[in-house]
Amino acid sequence: MTDIRKLSIEIYKKVSNDYVQTTPKKLKLIDVYLFYVALTGVIQLLYAIRVGSFPFNSFLSGFISTIGSFVLTVSLRMHLNPKNAEKERVPYRPERAIADWLFCNIIFHFTLFSFLG
b/e per residue, 91-103, with b = 16+ CB within 10 A? Predict the structure, then answer.
């Protein structure tokens, strides 16, 4: 049991050190936002389980909003990651990636707003 624990601690330390040393600051900022969105979705789900989801459209819109924001932001992170840019034949400019992310978020949230009723 202790060998497995030591091994998992070593793996965690190596992964966290690699993340801190090799990940650019703008990707770390995106990761913090992703954590916030995921935490918001978990809190909404726990609230709906514990208290109830009486206006179901409101709960559904809020929860779908967190899922959609998470997916769109993961896409943005993939486009802004310099390691992924090396693999693409046609370079994807960061300005275009951010503009696409903003446009998709606006359309997505307008759609959710109309779903509220």
Answer: eeeeeebeeebee
Structural contact between residues 75 and 101, judged by C-beta atoms closer than 8 angstroms: yes
What is the chain's Cα-based Rg?
19
Model pLDDT, residue 70: 97
Determine the Cα–Cα distance for residues 3 and 8; give it in Å rounded to an integer: 9
pTM of the model: 0.84
pLDDT tens readout for residues 28-83: 999 999 999 999 999 999 998 898 878 888 888 889 999 999 999 999 999 888 88
- Residues 39-43: contacts with CB within 8 Å, 24+ apart? 40/66, 41/66, 41/67, 41/70
Euclidean distance between CA atoms 77 and 71, whole angstroms: 10
Closest alpha carbon to 107 in 53, 67, 78, 65: 65
Residue 29 near residue 80 (C-beta atoms within 8 A): no
Amino acid at 27: L
